[in-house]
Amino acid sequence: MKQLLSSWPTPLEPAPRLAERIGLRPDDLWIKRDDLTGLGGGGNKVRKLEHTVAAALDDGATTLITTGAAQSNHARLTAAAARRVGLDAVLVLRGDHAAVSSGNVSLDRLLGARLVWAGDEPLDVVAARVADELTAAGQRPGLIPFGGTSVVGARGYVDCALELREQAPDLVHVVVAVGSGGTMAGLVAELGAHTVLGVDTGAMTDPGARITELVEQLRPGSGELRLRTDQVGPGYGVLTAAARTALEDAARTEGLVLDPVYTAKALAGLTAAVAEGAIRPGERTVLVHTGGLPGLFGHAIAAELASL
Ligand SMILES: *Cc1c(COP(=O)(O)O)cnc(C)c1O
To answer: 277 alpha carbon to ligand 1 midpoint, in Å?
Structure first.
């Protein structure tokens, strides 16, 4: 396991009151604390960056470039990873500067990243242009893919799956939010498709096809994906009633703070799976906490909660 950016393994913690709240037995539910991945405010992207940044360093990169939504946790963590290994970072973000003033963007600035607002242009077109400019200026750009998701990045979640095998040998289900898909792909490659329940958050179209393609390259024949698409609601980043309930359930039963964009939807998907009998009492279940707390402070819910 690489230790370039953080220390491993992350803790696996019991959540007995949350388990009962959603219809499981107290012993059934455990939280994999991948929000506690040290670097730059933490989150799942650090595991992928362990691999993609190592590859960029091998390639002699001087500046990392990546792309994302305005409140991208991945972009923030790429900026932190760059600093951790002595490089610069350029973040190509969707939309324009005027629309955001907090959350991850505040941390991007604190980390001293250069932000390039892509407006309505495709992110990878703008990123390629930035890479050309850097090359012309004598630098060597290292392009980190959207969400950190590639075969190389997904290996970070093969690492996480190996930790889980040791920490919870009797696990039956692992539940995880799906954005760009690399996290689920790495888990499926190591644990098999039957073990992993992905909950789509609407970050991209057809995540199932992308995850299948990644898994085929990591470990062919891993089986048919379990992917729920019913928690997206009106779209990426929009807080549904079920996700709001999940956010409150985790906070009020365990003092566990989830985020509105990813992990609250993952818990909402887990809750729905229990209600339907797809996950049953007595089955050891791990919910992966993939981080995202800075995004909560960049989301409309932060001001709404403060005003209650
Ligand atoms: C990016 C992200 C995810 C989704 O991970 P992918 O590998 O992109 O599917 C889940 N939770 C949080 C907090 C994230 O930032």
So the answer is: 26
CA of 149 to the centre of ligand 1 (A): 10
- By alpha-carbon position, which residue is closest to atom 3 of ligand 1? 179
Buried b (16+ CB within 10 A) or exposed e, 273-295: bbeeeebeeebbbbbbbbbbbbb
Mean pLDDT of 120-149: 97
User: Which domains are assigned to the chain?
Assistant: 12-42+151-306 (3.40.50.1100), 45-148 (3.40.50.1100)
Q: Which of 48, 144, 205, 290 to mutate to test the pocket of ligand 1 (most atoms within 8 A of CB)?
A: 290
pLDDT category at 97 given cuts 50, 70, 90 is confident
Contact 26, 107 (CB under 8 A): no
Residue with CA at minimum distance from ligand 1 atom 5: 179
